TrEMBL record:
This is Electron transfer flavoprotein subunit alpha. One of its GO terms (molecular function) is flavin adenine dinucleotide binding. Its cofactor is FAD. Binds 1 FAD per dimer. InterPro entries: DHS-like_NAD/FAD-binding_dom, ETF_a/b_N, ETF_a/FixB, ETF_alpha_N, ETF_asu_C, ETF_asu_C_CS, Rossmann-like_a/b/a_fold. Belongs to the ETF alpha-subunit/FixB family. SUPFAM superfamilies: Adenine nucleotide alpha hydrolases-like (SSF52402), DHS-like NAD/FAD-binding domain (SSF52467). Pfam families: ETF, ETF_alpha. It comes from the Bacteria. Residues 5-192 form the Electron transfer flavoprotein alpha/beta-subunit N-terminal domain. PROSITE patterns: ETF_ALPHA (PS00696). FAD binds at residues 213, 238-239, 252-256, 269-276, 290.
Length: 323
């Protein structure tokens, strides 16, 4: 049965995040000939319409209020709620990102909806839409279907292929001016101070080179950064490395850090504690470099190198430079 599907497009630095395109792919799949609407917030919204159309949106609702240039729970909640009330969708998708993880449960609670969060795959089986999501910190997966009512889910970045760009596609556009209840806007962002360096976004990176306590110092991350740069990837870290002060907590991967699903995850000097595995064990290919052959990380690694990371990583970089 055809469905009217709405997605909230995640934006970072005035650009669409890949997960917005991944949500569109899910929306297109389950719409079954129905209408796919994307909504995008902030003053750059109108510049993003074409890209949304090329990746599957039939209709784009831009909400360009300046209050939406930076994420705040209250403003996004009010704007998203008004868009939902206007579209009256049968299904809603957001990215399982800092934005989606915050605004989606708020919406679900206020509108009395269920929410399937952190979906790693969505498929249609015998007419039923089946969502797969991890449980027990990624140790197991559960499949869920919505029996009745509105479908609402957040999609984990990097798990679902975006549709190929189709430049012949166009979308109708509607600019919605949201009226905010100013008394309910309790937060104003005055300044954004980036603690992590610019570069590839860790949660969307195709390659992550991650360091643990084994890197031993802030300088110990330099060879990892060099390898990541060469591979067009991002640097991540274990909490051990963050706690030791070798890097910023913004790099932490794991249960209480970021969840990543790159094509290639290179773990350097990381023991493989369960809390770390929760953030990276779904990576497509895992390479572990550790001098302890008994390290737990080798249990999840596709390729293991027993050795000193300060010898192995520069050697890898040198060899890859020749390719
Ligand atoms: P270690 O366990 O100390 O391992 C260092 C490894 O480096 C060792 O295996 C060693 O053999 C190897 N090594 C040392 N020198 C070299 C060298 N020269 N070359 C190669 N290998 C070398 N952790 C996370 O990562 N993310 C989380 O989100 C997270 N959340 C947590 C939440 C809770 C509630 C709790 C209790 C813990 C959490 N932890 C988390 C911490 C986790 O339990 C581990 O303590 C942490 O992951 C260990 O980090 P590590 O592997 O870098 O350090």
């Amino acid at each position: 049965m055809s469905k009217n599907v709405l997605i909230l497009a995640d934006v970072r630095d005035k650009k669409l995040r890949n997960v917005a395109l991944e949500c569109l792919a899910v929306a297109r799949m389950i719409a079954d000939g129905g209408k796919v609407t994307a909504t995008v917030f902030g003053s750059s919204a109108k510049d993003l319409v074409e890209q949304l159309a090329h990746h599957g949106a039939d209709h784009v609702i831009t909400v360009s209020n300046p209050e939406l240039d930076q994420y705040t729970s209250d403003a996004y909640f009010q704007a998203f709620k008004q868009v939902i009330e206007k579209v009256q969708p049968d299904a809603i998708f957001t990215g399982h990102t800092a934005v989606g993880r915050d605004v989606s449960p708020r919406i679900a609670a206020r509108l009395g909806l269920g929410l399937i969060s952190d979906c790693t795959s969505v498929e249609v089986q015998d007419g039923k839409i089946i969502f797969t999501r991890p449980i027990y910190a990624g140790k197991a997966f559960v499949k869920k279907a919505v029996k009745e009512g509105l479908i609402f889910a957040t999609i984990r970045p990097n798990n679902i292929e975006a549709l190929a760009t189709d430049t012949s596609r166009t979308a109708t556009v509607e600019d919605l001016v949201v009226s905010f209840d100013k008394d309910l806007l309790r937060t104003i962002v005055k300044e954004v101070v980036r603690k992590t360096a610019d570069g590839v976004d860790l949660s969307e990176a195709r390659v992550v080179v991650s360091g643990g306590r084994g890197v031993k110092s802030e300088d110990g991350f330099k060879p990892l950064q060099e390898l990541a740069d060469l591979l067009g990837g991002a640097v991540g870290a274990s909490r051990g490395a963050c706690d030791a002060g070798y890097c910023d907590y913004g790099l932490q991967i794991g249960q209480t850090g970021k969840v990543v699903t790159p094509d290639l995850y290179i773990a350097c000097g990381i023991s493989g504690a369960i809390q770390h595995l929760a953030g990276m064990s779904n990576s497509k290919v895992i390479v572990a470099i550790n001098k302890d052959p008994e390290a737990n990380i080798f249990q999840v690694a596709d390729y293991g190198i027993v050795g000193d990371l300060f010898e192995v990583v520069p050697l890898l970089t040198e060899e890859l430079k020749k390719v």
